[in-house]
Write a structure and sequence with these properties.
The protein is 29% helix and 24% strand. The mean pLDDT is 87. It is extended. Strands 11-10-9-12-8-1-6-7-13 form a 9-stranded mixed β-sheet, with helices on both faces. Strands 2-5 form a two-stranded antiparallel sheet. Helix 3 (92-104) packs across helix 4 (125-133). The chain has 2 domains: 2-215, Rossmann fold (3-Layer(aba) Sandwich); 243-279, no CATH class. It has 8 helices and 13 strands. It has helices at 34-50, 65-74, 92-104, 125-133, 189-194, 205-208, 243-252, 266-279, and strands at 2-7, 9-11, 17-19, 24-26, 30-32, 53-59, 78-82, 110-114, 137-147, 152-158, 164-170, 173-177, 201-203. By secondary structure, the protein is an alpha/beta fold.
């Protein structure tokens, strides 16, 4: 079972800031995408059960080597970084084109990736690879079973409102995974240092027979904007009220508790209650 895992280094949201005056990002450092690492963990678990090889593939500049070495420390057999000076302005479409061209030259039973990335959340790359390779594509996968004897996989997909769908799919296929699929293993500092002896394969545009026009981005960032904070509604407490009432108002956020005792037949009370809930669109 040969598996390729598409990976992406993303900016660390704990450190990165955006300067509105200069229209630029500050304090940028890169970490592995959370879903891509889950995909790598799943690929390694499949290899441990069924044997085979796992390759981590990144489209990115030299700083992406740190991510690939983390994958080697986890148990990947090969690390490949695709980059060329002509790859200057990339979007999801261009990335999927490069990855699909690379995958087409090799023989992989499965291509795993994150359903979407932590930074852009486009969810396009996996679908783009599948479309260009003519493979089936399944996304939002939280459970994956591989049946090599049947040349198929059985997956459980996360749907809205907690629903799940179970599907079977022939392989080769492209699978987009979610965080709940597994818990990635810890890579110790010693293992990371041991990977420094392993060579990372570099692939350029010439090797893939790609020209600049082939990877021309179809989208462009026009501007960034920060989320507008929502103003909290305040309230003024009447100083003439007794201290106990003022404390009660503070604890309730300014909402006065209204009590009303109604004495009616149960069926009449139920009817009035349902009318109230319906009128106020509670139910």
């Amino acid at each position: 079972m040969n598996i390729a895992v598409c990976l992406k280094p993303v900016p660390d949201v704990k450190l990165i800031t955006y300067d509105l005056n200069t229209d630029s990002l500050q304090n940028v450092s890169y970490v592995p995408d959370s879903r891509d690492i889950v995909a790598m963990e799943e690929a390694i678990r499949i290899k441990e059960r069924l044997s085979g090889r796992v390759a981590g593939v990144v489209v990115g500049p030299p700083y992406a080597d740190a991510l690939l070495r983390t994958c080697l420390g986890m148990g990947a057999d090969e690390a490949i970084r695709i980059w060329d000076p002509t790859f200057d302005e990339f979007d999801a479409y261009a990335t999927s084109t490069v990855l699909a061209r690379f995958m087409s030259k090799l023989n992989y039973d499965l291509v795993l990736c994150g359903s979407n990335s932590d930074d852009e959340e486009s969810g396009f790359v996996g679908a783009g690879i599948a479309e260009q390779l003519g493979m089936p594509f399944l996304s939002r996968v939280v459970k994956l079973e591989v049946h090599p004897e049947k040349c198929s996989v059985v997956v459980e997909r996360r749907l809205e409102r907690g629903d799940r769908s179970v599907l079977t799919c022939p392989i080769p296929a492209v699978i987009g995974v979610e965080k709940g699929l597994n818990e990635p293993r810890y890579v110790s500092l010693g293992k990371q240092r041991s990977t420094l002896k392993i060579e990372i394969r570099k692939v350029g545009a010439c090797e893939l027979a790609l020209e600049r026009a082939d990877v021309k981005p179809l989208t462009k960032h026009l501007a960034f904007s920060q989320v507008r904070p929502r103003l909290k509604k305040g309230f003024v407490i009447d100083s003439k009220l007794p201290a106990s009432e003022r404390v009660a108002l503070i604890l309730s956020g300014g909402l006065k508790k209204i009590e009303k005792i109604v004495e009616k037949k149960p069926q009449d009370l139920a009817r009035e209650l349902m009318d109230f809930l319906t009128k106020n669109r509670i139910v």
